[in-house]
Specification:
GO terms for molecular function: NAD binding; UDP-glucose 6-dehydrogenase activity. By secondary structure, the protein is of the alpha/beta class. It folds into 2 domains: about 200 residues, Rossmann fold (3-Layer(aba) Sandwich), CATH 3.40.50.720; about 260 residues, NAD(P)-binding Rossmann-like Domain (Rossmann fold), CATH 3.40.50.720. It is built from 19 helices and 14 strands. The strands form 2 sheets. An 8-stranded mixed sheet has the order 3-2-1-4-5-6-7-8, with helices on both faces. Strands 11-10-9-12-13-14 form a 6-stranded parallel sheet, with helices on both faces. Strand 1, helix 1 and strand 2 form a beta-alpha-beta unit. Uridine-5'-diphosphate-glucose (UPG) binds next to helix 9.
Amino acid sequence: MAPVQVKKICCIGAGYVGGPTCAVIALKCPNIIVTIVDLNKARIDAWNSPDFALPIYEPGLVDVVKQARGRNLFFSTDVDKAIEEADLIFVSVNTPTKKSGVGAGFAADLNYVELATRRIATVASSNKIVVEKSTVPCRTAESMRTILEANSKPGCHFDILSNPEFLAEGTAIDDLFAPDRVLIGSLQTPEGISACESLAQVYSNWVPKERILTVGLWSSELSKLAANAMLAQRISSVNALSAICEATGANIDEVAHAIGYDSRIGPKFLRASVGFGGSCFQKDILNLVYLSESLHLPEVAAYWRQVVEMNEYQKRRFSKRVVDTLFNTITGKRIAVLGFAFKADTGDTRESAAITLIKDFQSEKAIVSVYDPQVPHDQIWQDLQEASPLVPLDTIKKQVSICNSAIEACKNAEAVVIATEWKEFKEIDWEEVYANMNKPAFVFDGRLLVDADKLRKIGFKVTTIGRPSNTD
Ligand SMILES: NC(=O)c1ccc[n+]([C@@H]2O[C@H](COP(=O)([O-])OP(=O)(O)OC[C@H]3O[C@@H](n4cnc5c(N)ncnc54)[C@H](O)[C@@H]3O)[C@@H](O)[C@H]2O)c1
Ligand SMILES: O=c1ccn([C@@H]2O[C@H](COP(=O)(O)OP(=O)(O)O[C@H]3O[C@H](CO)[C@@H](O)[C@H](O)[C@H]3O)[C@@H](O)[C@H]2O)c(=O)[nH]1
């Protein structure tokens, strides 16, 4: 079967994945019309804003959108029109962890995927290649196919592909321009292989052929969960070692450096931290845990669950270290929290470690001043409210304030807690910070960001993750 040449793409979901991914496809494939749709009008309006005030912050994204928007890249709320016109449809909607019902707290909520799939079936009157871009449990493509086939118009044929996304926030554009690999899963039927070839041709406009991996549908779906589980496992492993370092006098930086030199281990993703955050790692591991339990593999489930438990332990351990170091009480003390995003170079706060830390400080009755260079203030209030649903926002606002600079946040504080590795925190005038703080002035570096010796020379008492107190 000759592969269909894709001329029009629709992407359902204009979020952190759909937006950047399909904007890059539009940039790299000027002959393909790409329309990104979403039900959220405010989000689409932001993508279309004349001054490029896009709904997500991602280095390099504005340049991509500037070049392609209006040429062959369009953002719209008219979901049906874009579905109808497209040859290929990416489903890039959110798949959060279920909050209630069977599998609550573990299983992926596939409601958005199902609604988008049903919409495609209802609207489409010509053949479509439907691509699962969202991260989903193994065999979701089968459910999508069943829904599409049961609801399709006569003569309308659907091929389903899995094409998970591996971009990391903060480096999304670089990752999309030069991906380690593009993974496409299809049924191993002539139609499936042909559809796979159609999508591979789109990517081959800029991705070298040897980096486009084609596999079976279920392997593709599972590979996405597996990649995230193994990445998160590395962080939990290094964080577990950081606890041993703090107790023994070893230095986690030196340990990570030494083990990373082994070419079988490699140096990347071994940075001890206050805990991993982001919308993916925890969700996808819990998804894998649920899958393992559903398959009656309790030992496998327990193995992966431990990666998340270690992460929770790391966050709790860090908060406790702050309290212990500040003479076992932080009641009424001002703590400056630098960074609220889950990592640097993003404004995304989903599952950010900062949220847990601030909640812990609130329950110890500290006064908290927060600063993040990218996260909107409304988002911070929303996250803190969601973290403490029983506490009225007015009460939270009496304990927490949001500042417009790091210097302002640190004023009159007893301690500075570095929760996100923003480069600007390395470069702030620490002498000025010190001058304006109560003494003794403490710094807790949860990101291995600052030069502890330099800060100690200024007068700070510095505690660094993965190093023993007082001696690093
Ligand atoms: N964020 C990441 O870095 C990342 C990376 C790789 C994979 N993923 C996966 O990609 C998927 C999307 O993640 P995200 O971070 O972009 O989510 P997101 O919440 O930022 O975006 C999803 C968008 O889909 C829209 N939507 C939901 N249902 C819809 C429907 N029926 N019709 C039209 N629009 C609809 C929502 O309004 C939302 O704007 C998830 O499965 C996630 O696990 C995310
Ligand atoms: O050595 C490290 C590396 C990362 N982190 C933390 O781990 C979290 C996740 O970081 P990262 O993986 O860089 O960002 P994400 O955007 O969550 O990307 C992950 O999740 C995406 C969504 O599935 C995948 O597509 C990516 O491949 C995968 O890296 C963040 O809190 C980081 O601060 C560490 O603590 N130490």
